[in-house]
Amino acid sequence: MSSSSSIASQAKPTTYHVEEKEVSHEQSNNTHHSSISKIFTHGDGNELVTIGGHTYYRHELMSAFGGSLNPGASPFPTYNINPAPLGLFAFGVGCFIMGLFNARVMGITVSNIAISVCCFCGGISSMLAGILEFFTGNTFAFTLLLSYGGYWFSYAVIFMPSFGIAAAYEGTDQFENAIGLYLLAWALWTFFVVSLLLKSTLAFLSMFFGLAMTYLLMACAMMTGHMGVSRAGGVIGIITSIIAFYNAFAGVATPFNSYIIPPVVPLPEIKFGRK
C-alpha cells in the first residue's frame, strides 16, 4: 500500500518527536480494519500506519508531545507553526498567580489583581493560540485552548462590578457555593481531558491531572469554607503551572536556541488481550 506523505517529511523541526511504538493492536491480516478502527498498523514490518483512511510511514508521524499539545500519533501539520507554547505559557502564568493567592502567599486574601492576568494573558492569549491551532489541524489543542481561554474570561467577569454577578448574591450565603459548583464543572471537564492523555507523555498527563485536582480542591474549599483545602488547591495549582511552563519550554527549545532540551517521557502502553 502506498504512502500519502510528502518527501519533505524528513526535515521536520526537532521540537516534534518521532513515533517509535505501535499505534494500534490491529493485526495486518485483518481485511476489515477501516470498519473496526480509524488507526491501525500494517505492512510486512508494521511500518505503515493508517489514520482516518490515510496511510503514512511510521517515521512520518509525530508522537504524543506536550509541547505541541499533541496527545498521540498524528501527521505533521500542514502549516509549520506551533501555537501551543503560547497557550501553555498563558495557562501557566494564570495558574501560577491564582495558586499563589489561593495558598495565601504573603498573606494576600484579595485576589482581584489576577483579573488582568485572567483576561489579557489567560484569556486572550489562550484563545489566540487556539484559533491558530485550527489552521494546523490540531483539534485537541483547538478545543482545549479555546475552552480554557473561555474559563479565564468567565472567571474574571465574576469579580467585575460592571457585570453585577457578585452583587447579585449580596445578602445571601450562596456566592461561595455557586463558585464551588462552577469550579466543579471545570473539574469534571478536565478529568475527561485526562482520560484522553493516558497514551501521551508524563509531563502532559501530569499537567492536566494537577489542573483537575486544583479545580476539585478549590470547589471543595469554596463549598466548605476550609482554608486548609484552599491552601492545598493553591499549592497544587503552583505545581501545575510549573509543569505547564515545562511543556511550553519543550515546545520552543531546540538544539539551535538552547543548551537544555527537556526530555519527553512517554507513558507505558497498556496492551489489552483480544478474545
UniProtKB/TrEMBL annotation:
Listed Polar residues bias regions: 26-36
Pfam families attached to this UniProt entry: Gpr1_Fun34_YaaH
GO cellular component labels: plasma membrane
Location of the region described as Disordered in the Swiss-Prot/TrEMBL record: 1-36
Top-rank taxon: Eukaryota
Membrane-spanning residues: 84-101, 113-132, 152-169, 181-198, 204-223, 235-256
Compartments (UniProt record): Membrane
A single GO molecular function term of this UniProt record: acetate transmembrane transporter activity
Keywords: Membrane, Transmembrane, Transmembrane helix
Membrane topology term: Multi-pass membrane protein
Protein family: Belongs to the acetate uptake transporter (AceTr) (TC 2.A.96) family.
Xref: NCBIfam families: AceTr_1 (NF038013)
UniProt-recorded name of the protein: Mug86
